[in-house]
């Protein structure tokens, strides 16, 4: 429901002819936001029951973002990526690698698969924070390149938040907002 409401808002904000690009950016931001919320589940216990749904939403939003990018930025031909400058190509490859890395995480996030994989499941899912960081880098690097400067600021803010949560997550400490008083 949230993406639909945001798309309706985009029709009011985006200049005529730019809605397709804005939709692509919107789903990229939603994917990164869901990934950041997954990182926060370690600190915010009330988010923990939604961790799997947030991770799957991040993958689905990222997949749709990628499809829209191919359709509207690359004019439907992925080989057009080769005609972009090297910096832009590198930023797109960061997003492609992050999305490709989320695929095995999405496929193995179900209880039956987790049981069959055993400890291998945890090892695989430890890539999540790194993929979040790579997604944030892609967002800030590829960024919003069609105008709307508030979205450019949002890119930098999301990258900063990603870095903060990444380094916060790597510290071995007690959750900040746990329900138990230890």
Strand content: under 5%
The mean pLDDT is: 80
How many separate domains? 1
Distance between the termini: 38 Å
DSSP E strands, number: 0
Total helical elements? 8
**Biggest β-sheet, characterized?**
none
Helix/strand class: mainly alpha
Note down, in words, how this protein is organized.
By secondary structure, the chain is mostly helical. It has one domain. The protein has helices at 2-13, 19-40, 51-72, 86-107, 111-117, 119-125, 128-142, 149-170. The termini are far apart.
Features:
182 residues, 8 helices, single chain
Write the layout of secondary structure elements.
Elements (H helix, E strand, L loop, with lengths): L1 H12 L5 H22 L10 H22 L13 H22 L3 H7 L1 H7 L2 H15 L6 H22 L12
Task: Summarize the entry for a quick read.
This protein is mostly helical. The chain is 71% helix and 0% strand.
